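Comment thread on ticket #2218

A.B. wrote:
> Attaching the input chain for the structure job we discussed in standup.
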Amino acid sequence: MIQREKTRWTEYLGFLAIQKKIPLCEPGERRSVRVTFYRPGPASDADNAHAACKVCLDAMKRAGLIEDDSPKHITLAVSTVPSSKSRTVIELDKIPVSGS
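C.D. wrote:
> Ran it. Output below, let me know if you need it in another format.
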């Protein structure tokens, strides 16, 4: 089940990267990743929200959008927002190298 979700997310994120012209991650590049889960009902606790990112982050790595999901390569911000419609919003930005 998890492998199927990883494959689905990898294909979806790869498609979006091409469609939106999001450049692949360069070696050594750091990126900021913000994931917002919109869900019916009360917001999830922080542990559940971060755990829910694992498949997404693995897919981003496999699609070439991040080099790795370690703090050396990304900063990660995760939030949940109560909403009548479920959706996930992922924002990805390059972190400028100090001095440039």
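A.B. wrote:
> Thanks. Noting for the ticket: The chain has one domain: 2-94.
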